Amino acid sequence: MDGRLLKSDFYFGLPQELIAQDPLEERTSSRLLVLDKRTGAVSHHVFREIGDFLGPGDCLVLNDTRVIPARLLGEREGTGAHVELLLLKRISGDVWETLVRPGKKCRPGTRLTFGDGLLKAEILDTVEEGNRLVRFDYEGIFEEVLDRLGEMPLPPYITHKLQDRNRYQTVYARHEGSAAAPTAGLHFTRELLARLEEKGVKLAYVTLHVGLGTFRPVKEENVLEHHMHSEHYQVSRETADLINGTKARGGRIVCVGTTSCRTLESAADDQGVVHPGSGDTDIFIYPGYRFRVLDALITNFHLPESTLIMLVSALAGREHVLAAYEEAVRERYRFFSFGDAMLIV
């Protein structure tokens, strides 16, 4: 590289058939590629062996956000024209920021109907990036209506229909608000987490509601010109104390997923002390970034030229990461949301 950070520096060739379309029957049977961030050495394992790489005193940080069935299929009132609406963020009460397709005909004042009128919506305004503010109208409890009518908002590269919506949900999902799953956590079962705790690994939970911006491609060739999406996060006093205590005792902070990593790095000060609180973060981590909290990362395999592969490259070095990805392609690992996992230590 010539001092600039180019999108093309993070390209790798990925055969289409390696994009996992369905989750495996058993969550822990995914493969696990372990990458040493210092040497670039890789080794191949099964995810249920993750405990072999974690020790007493380490702290595993998990994002306990819960994906809502945020995809609604309906029609424009009066015309019957098909419309698809994706819930992105609750603004207040029954007003949400959404992505509407097709957007051209959905101007302010347009009314939409879903489920034979069980749920109605009015377009209020057009906001950043063409998203729409809508106000919903319904009888009863919104979450129950959404649970009945909504579908899981699977990423655009997954074309198969999800048979069991719980498989796009971590087993520890608690706080509703995500439009996409923190997919590194999909490999864990309650039994595996219990075994890790028995071994002396501490579990800490943060919340970051994942937006669809996580799939937004980097359009600018100069990476530094990319506008990062904003997501809401929360860190409790208990979690902050556990993480700070682990660091003070010499234990490692192992983040499960890039969302947990971004949450901690956003909540920490320059000395690496994590502070409790909540807020919106648009932190963009790319090579050259100095990590304040994180020591190791469990993550899935990401899209070429994405902000996520840039984050991973900031931790392990671009050359090491691209070499590991080439090895994963050669070994026919499964990629993306329902794919296999990587541990960077």
Topology:
Layout (H helix, E strand, L loop, with lengths): L30 E5 L6 E5 L12 E5 L1 E3 L3 E6 L5 E11 L2 E7 L9 E4 L4 E8 L5 E7 L3 H8 L25 E4 L11 H9 L3 E7 L22 E5 L1 H12 L4 E4 L1 H10 L9 E5 L14 E5 L6 H10 L1 H13 L10 E4 L1
Parallel strand pairs: 1-17, 3-12, 3-14, 4-11, 14-16
Antiparallel strand pairs: 1-2, 5-6, 5-8, 6-7, 7-10, 8-9, 9-10, 12-13, 13-15, 16-17
Concise summary:
The chain is of the alpha/beta class.
Write up this protein:
With 345 residues, the chain is α/β, with parallel strands linked by helices. It has 2 domains: 7-67 and 164-344, QueA-like (3-Layer(aba) Sandwich), CATH 3.40.1780; 71-149, Thrombin, subunit H (Beta Barrel). The chain has 6 helices and 17 strands. It has helices at residues 142-149, 190-198, 237-248, 258-267, 307-316, 318-330; strands spanning 31-35, 42-46, 59-63, 65-67, 71-76, 82-92, 95-101, 111-114, 119-126, 132-138, 175-178, 202-208, 231-235, 253-256, 277-281, 296-300, 341-344. The strands form 3 sheets. The chain has a 9-stranded mixed β-sheet with strand order 2-1-17-16-14-3-12-13-15. Helix 5 (307-316) crosses helix 6 (318-330). It is globular. The model has no long low-confidence stretch (mean pLDDT 95).
Total domain modules: 2
Topology, number of strands? 17
The level-1 CATH class of the largest domain: Alpha Beta
Given helix and strand content, the structural type is alpha/beta
The third-level CATH topology of the largest domain is: QueA-like
Instruction: Indicate the low-confidence ranges by residue numbers.
Output: none
Order of helices and strands: EEEEEEEEEEHEHEEHEHEEHHE
Largest sheet: 9 strands, mixed
CATH superfamily of the largest domain: QueA-like
**End-to-end distance, in Å?**
25 Å
Total helix count? 6
CA-based shape: globular
